[in-house]
Each structure stands twice: as C-alpha cells, then as structure tokens.
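Structure in, sequence out. Go:
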C-alpha cells in the first residue's frame, strides 16, 4: 500500500498527496499496489493497514535541511522522525503507527519518504523547490518499490483515468 499524506490547501504540506496522484496518473504497478490519498486522516487509516505486507508513506517532513531535500526513513526510525511536526496530522501518523503496532496491524516493512517543505501557507500549489524535485520523489518511490520486487510501467494516463492499482480517497 502506498499512502500519500498531507494537506493540499497548505502549499508544500500536500506534497505526499501530489506525489501519490502523479504516480497514479502515470504508472501501472505489478503486482497490484493500492494507492491511497491519506490526506490528513491519521487514525482513520488504521483499518487499511491490517493484512498489508508493506507500507510506503509519502509526506512532508520537518528538517533543517533545504526545501526539497528527500529522506528515506525505514521502520522503527519513522516515529522518531515525526517528533518535529510539520502539521497536526503528523501526530495522527505517529499515533497510527504506534496503534498499528500495538494491535498487530503494522506491516512488517514500512518506509516513509519525507520531503522537506519550503512554504507552509494557504496555497494550492507546491513551491518551486518541491515542484522541481517531484521527478526525484517519483524516482525514489520507484526505487523503494523495485527493492520490494514491484514493477511499474508508464501508462500515460492523465486526469480522472485510473493508472494502476486501486485508489481510495479519504
């Protein structure tokens, strides 16, 4: 399962959802990958985690690094990486992962692709630094999926067409 997280009306805070939507529009995945617009859902995502073998999260990540910096964080390191909050949904994601572990819902393998935001204000578009690194974000996602043995093929679909997998909106 791949979950794009973030608030689309807060500029770079929505980078995870933007990335997930781009992947959905441009690629088909084999074996099937479920693509989820997690928005700012937090604990509402818990039922989706049950019986997943792998979970890939894409989200804005607070850091002193320059905007557009991409970090790949794995398993147990994720909750500590979310201690500095970009937004309130990070509290929800940290709680989600803790509760999933407690209930034995946590997938054996979890990866967070975190992108350092530049602009966190009421705006629908990504800042220029994040817009420029979107191809690198997609490449990073594809690399993680390839490590998991998941192949993707470009499908060139745009707009409302489904590209691959199954998309759920939360």
């Amino acid at each position: 399962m791949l979950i794009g997280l973030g608030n689309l009306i807060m500029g770079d805070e929505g980078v995870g959802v933007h990335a997930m939507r781009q992947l959905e529009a441009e690629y088909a995945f084999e074996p099937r990958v479920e693509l989820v617009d997690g928005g700012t859902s937090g604990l509402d995502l818990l039922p989706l985690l049950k019986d997943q073998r792998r979970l890939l999260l894409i989200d804005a990540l607070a850091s002193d690094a320059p905007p557009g910096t991409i970090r790949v964080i794995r398993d147990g390191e994720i909750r500590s990486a979310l201690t500095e909050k970009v937004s309130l949904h990070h509290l929800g994601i940290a709680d989600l992962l803790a509760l999933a572990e407690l209930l034995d819902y946590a997938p054996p393998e979890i990866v967070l692709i975190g992108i350092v935001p530049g602009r966190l204000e009421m705006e629908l578009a990504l800042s220029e630094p994040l817009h420029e690194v979107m191809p690198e974000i997609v490449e990073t996602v594809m690399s993680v999926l390839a490590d998991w043995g998941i192949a993707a093929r470009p499908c060139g679909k745009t707009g409302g067409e489904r590209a691959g997998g199954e998309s759920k909106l939360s």
